[in-house]
Design a protein that fits this description.
- There is one protein chain.
- With 65 residues, the chain is mostly helical.
- The protein is globular.
- The protein starts with 6 loop residues before the first helix and ends in a 46-residue tail after the last helix.
- The relative contact order is 0.20.
Length: 65
């Protein structure tokens, strides 16, 4: 598995997982089991101008150059 280095990649992955039914927006509001940090947040809730969850766009392994 590749590390997620930039915020846009993380947001795209989260939206894609919701679109595929892997998790829901409410699932992302809850910290994972064993989480001990104090600054947990749902990154998709922090992006008010993001496209709707069902509109994940093109998902491909190839870059859009």
């Amino acid at each position: 598995m590749q590390p997620l280095n930039d915020l846009q990649s993380v947001l795209r992955t989260l939206r894609d997982g919701i679109g595929k039914g892997y998790w829901t927006m409410q699932d992302l509001d809850v910290p994972p089991p064993g989480y001990v940090g104090k600054n947990f947040r749902n990154l998709l809730r922090d992006q008010p101008d993001a496209p709707p969850v069902g509109d994940v766009g093109k998902v491909s392994d190839e870059p859009d150059w």
